[in-house]
Amino acid sequence: MSEPNIKEIVREKYGKAALRAVTGGDGCCGDGCCGAGPSAGGADPITSNLYSTGETSELPETAVKASLGCGNPTALAELRPGETVLDLGSGGGIDVLLSARRVGPGGKAYGLDMTDEMLALARENQLKAGVENVEFLKGEIENIPLPENTVDVIISNCVINLSADKDRVLREAFRVLKPGGRFAVSDVVTRGEIPHDIRRSILLWVGCLAGALEEDEYRDKLASAGFENIGIEPTRIYKVEDARQFLTGRGLDVDRIAPLVDGKFMSAFVRARKPR
């Protein structure tokens, strides 16, 4: 699938998700979110239970409902008072608002998104939350509309895997980070070799098209962009049983493929640093 087509699919999907959050539904729209509905245990195995009640209790309900991520990068990034943070693909703004509170009034949190509906929702959520040290920018993560050496920390919540040009995203992230700045994102990654047709079907279930990188490839791309101190830490490993209904509906023999995929798809916290 070409890059323009991927962008339009993502734009449409997340635009609809923003509207659903506003009208009272959750952010997910069918099988196209990061997470395709509940597993046998009754909860979405990808998007559920990512934030503590303490984190979400002071946020607008629409910010929580519009969250389509697979992790909680604000909790893992160890944000410090006074820092400037940029969230790539900020959606309804949940991670930006949480970051703004962590960095305090002396810091700042930027959110970058290309979807008008999500930007409108995020700005409304900012007003409801009464958080002033926030700015939402319209743009694409492959072309960040900020000068070089601008931010201390880049976060993202399962958005980089949606890009058709991840090398450019990582180069842009490196460019806008200050020397010594931190790259601290949640993303979907894979581990080891997986047959192409099975990989594509499961990643469609995850809701991130078929774009997740294998973890060693992710490390290589970060290193090529100039980053050092690279680490990938699994935060939630997906089991094929979680996707049984979805995969069966696409004609796959779940029992046959389970040994090939169990433990190979995961949410992970990806860390790296721009050299000083």
How would you describe this protein?
The protein has 11 helices and 8 strands. The protein is an alpha/beta fold. It has one domain (3-273): 3-Layer(aba) Sandwich (Rossmann fold). Strands 1, 2, 3, 4, 5, 6, 7 and 8 form an 8-stranded mixed beta sheet that branches. It is globular. Mean pLDDT is 79; it is low at 26-46.
Number of helices: 11
The helicity comes to: 25-40%
Task: Report the C-alpha radius of gyration, rounded.
Answer: 18 Å
Number of strands: 8
Mean pLDDT: 79
CATH topology: Rossmann fold
Largest sheet: 8 strands, mixed
Overall structural class, as computed from helix and strand content, comes to alpha/beta
Which CATH class applies here?
Alpha Beta
Low-confidence stretches: 26-46
The CATH architecture designation is 3-Layer(aba) Sandwich
Number of domains: 1
**DSSP strand (E) fraction?**
15-25%
Distance between the termini: 38 Å
**Helix-strand topology string:** HHHHEHEHEEHEHEHEHHE
Classified in CATH, the superfamily is: Vaccinia Virus protein VP39
Short description, anyone?
This protein has 276 residues and is of the alpha/beta class. The chain has one domain: Vaccinia Virus protein VP39 (Rossmann fold, 3-Layer(aba) Sandwich). The protein has helices spanning 3-22, 53-56, 61-65, 73-76, 94-103, 116-129, 166-176, 196-206, 215-225, 244-248, 254-261; strands at 84-88, 108-113, 134-138, 151-156, 177-190, 213-214, 228-238, 265-273.
